[in-house]
UniProtKB/TrEMBL annotation:
It holds the Pfam family DUF4440. It comes from the Bacteria. Transmembrane segments: none annotated. Residues 7-111 form the DUF4440 domain. This is DUF4440 domain-containing protein.
């Protein structure tokens, strides 16, 4: 069974790993079959996401999240949130607000992100 505090803790781990470009932690938090739709409409895989951090294409300086809703459905958690991101992509600075939906699922090896989507707001 998943509890809300588990997901909130994992969300914080995810943000810290994104800010520090910690590919090892991101690798543990993201399911191998992850599918995510980026704000520009591109569908990416786990490996594509990790590559942006590994190569330094995406650098996050600050993440401020505001959780809107968190639903637990048996072994699945669905979270919606607004996130203010500040950083750079391909050495181009950006600061933007996004709305995300993320799906966390419990497996024998832990709880992992299996999918999600983000839009610019």
């Amino acid at each position: 069974m998943i509890i809300k505090n588990d997901i909130l803790g994992l969300e914080n781990q995810l943000y810290e790993a994104m800010k520090s470009s910690n590919v090892e932690i991101l690798d543990k938090l993201l399911h191998d079959d992850l599918l995510f739709i980026t704000p520009n409409g591109e569908t990416i895989t786990k490996e594509m996401d990790l590559e942006t951090y590994r190569n330094g294409y995406l650098k996050i300086v600050d993440i401020i999240s505001n959780i809107e809703q968190l639903n637990i459905i048996e072994d699945l958690a669905v979270i919606t949130l607004k996130i203010n991101l500040k950083g750079s992509f391909n050495n181009e600075p950006f600061e933007a607000q996004y709305r995300y939906i993320r799906f966390w699922k419990k497996f024998s090896g832990g709880i992992k992100v299996v999918g999600g989507s983000g839009i610019s707001i």
